[in-house]
Amino acid sequence: MITLEAAYKRAAFYMSELKKGSKKLLNAWAFYDWANSVYTLTIASSIFPIFYSALFISEIKTVSAFGFEFKSTALITFVTAFTFLVVALTSPILSGIADYVGNKKAFMKFFCYLGSLGCIGLYWFNLEHIHVSLLFYFMGLIGYWGSLVFYNSYLPDIAFEEQQDRISAKGFAWGYIGSVLLLILNLAMVMKPEWFGFEISISEALLNSGNESAVNQALEAAKNNASIKAMRVSFVTVGVWWALFSQYSFYYLPKGVSSGNKVTRAIIFNGIRELKQVWVQLKSNLRLKRYLYAFFVFSMAVQTIMLVAVYFGEEEINWGGDSEKTVGLIGSILIIQLIAVLGAYLTSLASEKFGNIKTLIGINMIWMATCFYAYFMFTPTQFYIAAGVVGFVMGGIQSLARSTYSKFLPETEDTTSYFSFYDVAEKVGIVIGMVIFASIDQITGTMRNAILFLFIFFLLGIVMLLRVPKGSAEV
């Protein structure tokens, strides 16, 4: 029973908050995309993979960690897989607790600041202290994905159903603009470090030696060192940007009303029980179950490629020099981002004409061909072509996969549990895909074999999509 005092507190709380659906509240929610999207573009996708690979000077790129000798790319892939495993296991538990005790924003803030500190900590990333360095990497990654769990769950709280698609798209657009702006600044820092006060100098004696070749090599090495310092600073800019701009969202997003209830064992595992109930219900829904199996398989490969693409480009492509490599890799990321918007739009048109399942089958065929093409890819031009293809099918397959799942859901008010199950399935798929990729990379010594192996997952995905029963309408 709610006491009179508690009722007054609750009424005062709601009066002090912005109303659901208000423009200021919706913009405050969408603005968090502007704040956190810089992590995915600068650290997850571009600058950090280049920086990490630059730490390994020798031809054989190995590092000792956790009592084992790892290939450099395999190590970072294993750590990424472990992080997604932690997210998959904890997100349903934490979201359940947050909803129960009414402190969703506190959880979102915790993960935001954890991720921000992780990004700043990457400034000190080095191979001599690899375990602490990987901890910072782990903090950034789990902070980003952990905060997204609570950020996404705010959408039905702050927006009416007819507003949700539009404000979600606005968040995506703001995130894209903000992340590209910071990436351009970071790129300028890396390519022209002297413009930002990073010293590029060689000894006076060498400069006056008359050995032009030695002078040029020394200048190249000095510029590379300055660029690496600029990369370290770029990680700090991401952390500061993320924490600073998120304050606008935190100021206006509702805090949630504290229930005053204690967190019991039953509440902690309530989210897991809901996932089990969805799994049981899937057994009686053959169409949804078969589609989810197909999604699990092809999403495993898609997400893995997106997470390792830059590492592959850095290690397997003949760029000619470090400067060309940096420009080429970051340029390819921008190509992917630009074409992804067009790809998502064209995919939606194709799904309207041919149906969701047929369109997904076609996109999986393109992904499958891309894996085969990547095995024989050596030149920058070939890599740019692959980047364009990946961008074209990347945004489309993600948006279409989720909307198809939504169309296949049964008539129920408990869509949150179904989408929680979907998100956990996606994260577990990433874990499996990354572990398989890293294991093949570690055993065979090349990422080419690993990327070719993903061909199998797209083929299986196509076969499974063909087995999804047709409904009353073409989907």
Give an overview in words.
By secondary structure, the chain is mostly helical. The protein has 2 domains: 21-268, Up-down Bundle (Growth Hormone, Chain: A); 271-469, Up-down Bundle (Growth Hormone, Chain: A), CATH 1.20.1250. It has 17 helices and 2 strands. A two-stranded antiparallel ribbon has the order 1-2. A hairpin with a 2-residue loop joins β1 (62-65) and β2. α2 runs antiparallel to α5 (130-153) and α3 runs antiparallel to α16 (415-444). The chain is globular and about 80 Å long.
User: Quick one: biggest sheet?
Assistant: 2 strands, antiparallel
- What topology, given as strand order, has the largest sheet? 1-2
Quickly give the structural class. mainly alpha
| Global Rg | 24 Å
Mean pLDDT: 82
Strands, total number: 2
CATH class of the largest domain: Mainly Alpha
Structural domain count: 2
Shape: globular
